[in-house]
Structure formats: C-alpha cells, structure tokens
TrEMBL record:
Protein name: Cyclic lactone autoinducer peptide
Species in which this protein is naturally found: Paenibacillus albidus
Alphabetized InterPro entries for the sequence: AgrD (IPR009229)
Superkingdom of the organism of origin: Bacteria
Amino acid sequence: MKTLAYATATLLATLASGVVSTASFLFVYQGETPEELLK
C-alpha cells in the first residue's frame, strides 16, 4: 500500500511540475505586450 501511495504522489508531483513549467514558459514567451497594458 505504501508503494502505491508513493508512486501516486510521485506521478502527481511530476505532472504538476510539467504543467507549471509549461505555463511559465508560455507566459514568459508570449510575445508583444498589448499597448493597453503599457499605458
């Protein structure tokens, strides 16, 4: 049972890390800032 819990926690942590990394990459490299935000 402990092995299953450890494997599940590892899988969820890896998945969360991948989602956060992808979102951060897309946010940082999204391109030009709209003019409305620069005012």
